[in-house]
Amino acid sequence: MQDLQKVKAALAPYLQGLTDKEKQSLFKMGDKTVATVQKVKSYTSTNPEFNPNYMDLAEFVKDEIVVTQLDPLVNLCNQLASDLSDTMTLAGSEALKASLMYYGAVKEAESKGVATAKPIYDDLSQRFMRQNFKKDKPKD
């Protein structure tokens, strides 16, 4: 965790957050468009006669370099986030399964009159109540 915080702090000066609205208004780059932008960058060097005067070439080159450098890092972070999420899902499932086993034992003990089980059952039964959601029947 500490190492991830260090990485986050080291990258913070270079990272930018966007609102959902800002994200919606931007062009999106995928694998194909990254390759296209890289090819255009090459052409701006080999065929500069086509560079429009209104295009900020230095900014374009800088942005392309950022994309090229961040792409493998984003891929690695996405893999890490996916693995963390999967691990948390699995651990959560196993923890809930064990909790249900414990609750079942408490419920059985309470039904047999074990006094020490009653307060535990009363507390946990609120959390383990099954919700019956009835779907509206279509009217004829």
Question: Total number of β-strand segments?
Answer: 0
Q: What gyration radius follows from the Cα positions, in whole Å? A: 28 Å
* Structural class category: mainly alpha
* Major sheet: none
Mean pLDDT comes to 92
Give start-end ranges of low-pLDDT stretches: none
Helix content: 55-70%
Overall geometry:
elongated
Strand content: under 5%
Task: Specify the number of helices.
Answer: 5
Order of helices and strands: HHHHH
User: How far do the termini sit from each other?
Assistant: 59 Å
Notes on the structure:
- The protein is 69% helix and 0% strand.
- With 140 residues, it is mostly helical.
- α3 runs antiparallel to α4 (57-111) and α4 crosses α5 (117-125).
Topology:
Layout: H1 2-11, H2 20-25, H3 31-46, H4 57-111, H5 117-125
Properties at a glance:
5 helices, mainly alpha, elongated, 140 residues
Please outline what is shown here.
The chain has helices at 2-11, 20-25, 31-46, 57-111, 117-125.
